[in-house]
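FYI - complex with magnesium ion, inputs then prediction.
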Amino acid sequence: MPAIVLVGAQWGDEGKGKATDLLGSRVHAVVKFNGGNNAGHTIVIRQEDGQSEKYALHLLPSGILTPGCRPVIGNGVVIDLGVLFEEIDGLNARGVDTSGLVVSGSAHVIAPYNRTLDKVTERFLGNARIGTTGRGIGPTYADKMSRIGIRVQDLFDEDVLRAKVSGALNLKNQVLVKIYNRKGFDVDAVVAELASYRDRLAPMVADTPLLLEQMLDRGETIVLEAGQATLLDVDHGTYPFVTSSNATAGGACTGSGIPPTRIRRVVAVIKAYTTRVGEGPFPTELDDAKGELLRTNGAEFGTTTGRPRRCGWFDAVIGRYATRINGVTDFVLTKLDVLTGLDEVPVCVAYEVDGKRHDELPMNQADFSRAVPIYETFPGWDEDISTARSLNDLPRNARDYVTAIEKMIKAPISVIGVGPGRDESIVVRDLLD
Ligand code: GDP
Ligand code: IMO
Ligand code: MG
């Protein structure tokens, strides 16, 4: 099996971390190809003594928890080096071996001024804010596109680093001081901060596209793991309420250096209902007790910022869109267990915008923000499904719900999550066959 891509189908937090982890030791490398420490992926591993160990990963690929799997931070990622080493130290303290980690020399680094700019810009936007994670992601990708970014490889030449930081600050300090009324940054201090990571980073830096190509040539399996999700993609998402990278399948190629011809399968992770963190349109959002119930039962609080996630019913229009944009070959449907106990489960099958029915996502964002869901309602179930390990273990109504949404989203559901644990899944079709 060559490379497989794993993306989120909705607005993030679908359970990508668990899905990657589930593939386990049959995967030789997991590559993070976009985003940075705006992501928060939770993985729950049940130990032999029955206790659960919970890990929250932000910058490191989920494969880091699988012994023998090589974790790779690809060129498409933006790296906060302080966070990287904090995360590594945290895992090492818990006995996780991180020595196999490799980092692309072409990945961009989040400079301290970009963290500040992210926060002050959001404050400046007021009601028009995006609701970013405040980690400096947007300004760092903006610098990359403006060709004033700092890359990992720049850290290893003091003159180059100083010239680049100085060039960027020429502009940024003007903006910070004159527009936002903030203190500017000192070139020496920024250079010293970035250079302080140099020695620890050096042994991890590699030509990752070359390394990955050699692995594929040996017949090894590589998972390209997205941060964020389809509707947060800067091109295909609900712009401007998106992140600043390509979180869809196409981004896996540019963000890793693996060409499209080497990708065999595209797996999309999709929750049995919908959540969103931050601002922006969300047609099936629930502001009532049902929404609160989903938040409580699903523990829907951000892994990165702790913000309560906005919750709503499953939106099949979004699922179909994810299939189309990513070329999905398999879905991993997560959190079906969270719906247990509901009398009935509505699913959005289409929208109405100004009296007109839309079966596909409206092209125009203004239309999408006015979209009113058209629901089809399915009967609920009360039985505990967390111990189900095959489709036949599911109560009839749960199975019917899965079959109905599978038809609507137009790609097969190969895995069903019935709990947060590594083992709490129904595997209908092996993702690595
Ligand atoms: P990611 O960002 O896509 O990796 O997702 P997050 O980790 O931010 O959020 C998903 C949450 O759902 C995590 O707390 C997971 O442990 C949990 N989770 C994943 N799959 C399931 C499932 O099938 N059932 C339940 N109850 N929880 C799940
Ligand atoms: P994972 O990988 C959910 C959202 C933020 C905000 C918007 C832009 O865990 O699914 P940014 O800081 O990226 O500029 O914020 O994107 N966002 C996420 N929402 N899950 C994530 O990651 C997210 N990463 C960013 O809330 O609305
Ligand atoms: Mg998350």
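The chain is about 30% helix and 20% strand. Residues 57 and 420 are 15 Å apart (CA to CA).
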